[in-house]
Amino acid sequence: MKTSQKFFHQLLRLYRPFENKLNIHLAEHQLHRAQWSILYYLFNHGAATLVDLSHYLYVEKPTVTRTINRLEELGYVEQVPSKDKREKRIQLTELGRKVYLDVRVTIDQFESDILKGISEQEQLAAIRMMGEIRNNIIN
After folding, report:
1. pLDDT digit string (tens) for 8-36?
2. CB contact at 8 A, 65 and 11
3. CA distances (Å), 55 to each of 18, 43, 48, 66, 80, in order?
4. What pLDDT, on a 0 to 100 scale, did the predictor assign at position 124?
5. Rounded CA separation 17/123 (Å)
6. Which residues is 77 bridged to in the sheet?
7. Could you give the domains of the chain?
8. Residues of the chain under the 50 pLDDT cut
9. Burial, 94: exposed, middle or buried (Cβ in 10 Å; 0-12, 13-18, 19+)?
10. Alpha helices by DSSP H, the chain
11. Residue 39 contacts residue 50 (beta carbons within 8 Å)
12. Which residue, 17, 63, 88, 111, shows the most beta carbons closer than 10 Å to its own?
């Protein structure tokens, strides 16, 4: 088996267990991965449009709209005025920021546990490599 085949086989084997365990930890906070990804983006990048979020998550806009609607119901996000009335901008509410920080503690521990034995230098190399692979896929 070629190295590239082994690489992508391992990547596929990593994804599902990671997402399953992540969702278990997020469920402690009544969230799932898609909601967490949006909270993460808004906390780290500020207000965003639905198009910004759909591009970031690489999903269709209706998918983002459904998730945003649920986060609005929970009081975690809100719409903010935009220069373009057709454009819906979303930001975290104070409650959303608090929830993000609470969940961040749980996720930090989970991530720390699963990265045991992997140096920061190795993590940075993997981050760089994953970014390049993603760019090759979407460009």
Report:
1. 999 999 999 999 999 999 999 999 999 99
2. no
3. 22, 17, 11, 15, 20
4. 97
5. 19
6. 92
7. 3-138 (1.10.10.10)
8. none
9. exposed
10. 3-27, 33-45, 50-57, 61-73, 94-114, 120-138
11. no
12. 88
- What is the Cα–Cα distance from 125 to 139, expressed in whole angstroms? 21
DSSP string, 68-92: HHHHHHTTSEEEE--SSTT--EEEE
Rounded distance between C-alpha atoms, residue 112 and residue 114, angstroms: 6
Alpha carbons 93 and 73: distance in angstroms, whole number: 12
Look at residue 13 in the predicted model and tell me its pLDDT: 94
pLDDT of the residue at 81: 83
Q: Do 57 and 21 contact (CB within 8 A), yes or no?
A: no
Phi and psi at residue 124, in whole multiples of 5°? -65, -40
Kindly state the tokens that stand for 79.
Answer: 């719409």
